[in-house]
Design goal:
Helix content is about 35%, strand content about 15%. With about 220 residues, the chain is α+β, with helices and mostly antiparallel strands.
């Protein structure tokens, strides 16, 4: 899957945002010291940011702005890496067509690496639009931008896919029922926390959930 298939597979923004929150909360409960996913409400005024870092240099970010959603990813080993030449350069067409309302994000220093927007995948969806868009990038046979593995779990959204990914990352079993509850947006409760991590303190996890904007069950 490259970005052209990705824009057809991505969920609507509200679903995507909820999924990002759930993935972050899952990581917080499993291991708050080395989370793979992050969700930052109010990253900028009125703007949230969701992130993923693989631990080996690959990543993605999703900016939820009132004007729309801007999604980007970086696979350092794919054909579209800016490091294929020097000075670094984006794959042709990568940012072409990006709406003016979202165009400031590639220039945001916090999203850059050494002064450059180091990405291989970009997509966006303006508020009110009915579909995701991307630039007119072209790939030859066998060429890749990393979209498939970077966003595969996020686009799948199933408990099985999320559990498999978490088990690979944290190298331990992960409770399917508890993950399904988080993905469904069920309020966080002691049973779910205990099933994912018996050593976790529920009140501490509940506070983290509230900070993420995730619902917590009444005591």
């Amino acid at each position: 899957m490259n970005v052209h298939e990705l824009v057809s597979a991505l969920a609507d923004p509200d679903v995507l945002r909820a999924r990002c929150r759930a993935l972050t909360l899952l990581d917080v409960v499993l291991d708050g010291f080395a989370p793979k996913h992050g969700y930052f409400p109010g990253w900028r005024e009125g703007v949230d940011l969701a992130t993923m870092e693989s631990g080996s240099g690959d990543l993605y970010g999703i900016v939820f702005d009132p004007a729309g959603v801007f999604l980007y990813g970086f696979d350092h080993e794919c054909d579209a890496t800016p490091w294929r030449e020097w000075p670094r350069a984006h794959w042709p067409g990568l940012l072409e067509g990006l709406p003016a309302a979202l165009a400031r994000y590639p220039a945001d220093p916090e999203l850059q690496f050494e002064g450059f927007f180091d990405v291989t995948v970009c997509a966006w969806r303006e508020t009110g639009a009915t579909s995701w868009q991307c630039g007119p990038v072209v790939f030859g046979l066998g060429e890749s931008d990393g979209a498939g593995w970077l966003f595969g779990v996020l686009t799948d959204g199933s408990a099985e896919a999320v559990c498999s990914d978490a088990e690979d990352y944290y190298e331990r079993p992960v409770d399917r029922q508890a993950v399904a509850a988080l993905l469904a947006g069920a309020p966080l409760d002691p049973r779910t926390v205990g099933a994912l991590n018996p050593a976790a303190d529920f009140e501490a996890m509940a506070e983290r959930a509230r900070l993420l904007g995730y619902a917590v069950a009444d005591a």
